[in-house]
Amino acid sequence: MYGRDPWGGPLEIHTADSATDDDRSRNLQDFDRAAMSRSLDETQQSWLLGPTEQKKKKYVDLGCIIVSRKIFKWTVGCIIAAALLAGFITMIVKLVPRHKHHNPPPDNYTLALRKALMFFNAQKSGKLPKHNNVSWRGNSCLQDGKSDDSTMFKNLVGGYYDAGDAIKFNFPQSFALTMLSWSVIEYSAKYEAAGELAHVKDTIKWGTDYLLKTFNSSADTIDRIAAQVGKGDTTGGATEPNDHYCWVRPEDIDYARPVTECHGCSDLAAEMAAALASASIVFKDNKAYSQKLVHGARTLFKFSRDQRGRYSVGNEAETFYNSTGYWDEFIWGAAWLYYATGNSSYLQLATTPGIAKHAGAFWGGPDYGVLSWDNKLTGAQVLLSRMRLFLSPGYPYEEILRTFHNQTSIIMCSYLPIFTSFNRTKGGLIQLNHGRPQPLQYVVNAAFLATLFSDYLAAADTPGWYCGPNFYSTDVLRKFAETQIDYILGKNPRKMSYVVGFGNHYPKHVHHRGASIPKNKVKYNCKGGWKYRDSSKANPNTIVGAMVAGPDKHDGFRDVRSNYNYTEPTLAGNAGLVAALVALSGDRDVGIDKNTLFSAVPPMFPTPPPPPAPWKP
Question: Gene3D superfamilies, alphabetically (predicted)?
Answer without folding.
Answer: 1.50.10.10
